[in-house]
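lol ok so funny story. i was supposed to be doing the assay writeup but got distracted and ended up predicting the structure for this chain instead. priorities right. anyway since i did it might as well share w the group, maybe its usefull for someone
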Amino acid sequence: MIKIIRAIIIIFLLILLIKITVIAVKFLLLIIIAVLIFNAIKSLI
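and the output, tada:
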């Protein structure tokens, strides 16, 4: 019984970690795109 609870907790933590990683990656991509757009605009002016 304890093993099943432990397995559920581990799976839950893994899912949470994956979700956090996905959010972090999206955030980083947004920052990179913003920087690229900013540099493009700066080079045009």
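The two ends are 66 Å apart (CA to CA). The longest helix spans residues 2-44.
back to the writeup now i swear
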